[in-house]
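Human: We require from you a standard protein entry with sequence in single-letter code and fold as tokens, and nothing else.

Assistant:
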Amino acid sequence: MGIYKRGATYWIDINVKGFERIRRSAGTASREAAQELYDTLKANLWKVNKLEVKQERSWAEAVIKYLTEASANRDMVNMKSRLRWLDQHLGGLALTDITRSMIESIGEIKRKSSTPATANRHLALIRTILLRAERRWEWIDKAPFVKLYSEPSRRIRWLTKPEAIRLLNECPDHLQAVVQFALSTGLREMNILKLQWLQVDLQNRQAWIHGDETKNKRSLGVPLNDTAVNTLRAQIGKHTTHVFTYEGQPIGRANSTAWAKALERAGIKDFRFHDLRHTWASWHVQGGTPLHVLQELGGWETPAMVRRYAHLGGQQLQGYADSINLDFGTKMTQRLFSIVGK
């Protein structure tokens, strides 16, 4: 089509075999200026085609292409938030202008106002996009090295049952149901909020999460205890498809202002919604649930993921230790028992 007018602005449409179609606003009401831009863009494509020169791509183009490919990513909301922050530093740059020192500077800026872990999430996103530009899209010859910050080992944050009750009492009704279900099942936030009635069997006290909704891509069966069953029954009739709703609509996010205010009123600090899952796992271990059973219940892929809770089960191990508390009748054990008895 070449050059055409849409309203008061001219647009450009270039379709060259072997290249992505360019269809964009020329940003001008002047046909002459639009023609000049059209000729420049087409000449650049010719150079790339005839002289085997790589077409220069921008960070903005890379972001758009990455978001298209990553559209099914469950962390899309947070990813877009990070990209919006990065845009102020990289938005107007060509990929070839992005250097290692520039990326390190961006990391330092973010680190001043956040934790090393948060800064790493932004740096890792830059690295992912640049590596795709190099290896998958072949837009650049070499992606710069991106160094991440070392992160301190994060302690497991969990609530005692009195703390949990205090939090539940401060939650509004719709959020209270979500929190109660999280503490009863250990499910992640999105698995709870996206739960539909088709995934629930109250008669057999089971729910299930489809493989495309789990972190390890494996379907997960969820046994429901009395608390979970009663929580679900209280939601019956509120929505035709989704279980957890607010004012007649499925809840989009539980980690909201209402959640933050409930934590504040309950006097609970340094606690994320995901820590409800840690709380559920911690209660299981303290109640004597073996780690291999907890792994199945929580849908963790490897035993290493549940070993972090092992230290909470010391009391349950006492019985195993006592099971071999025997008097072997040797002089050494007799001596030991006599010392202990003094």
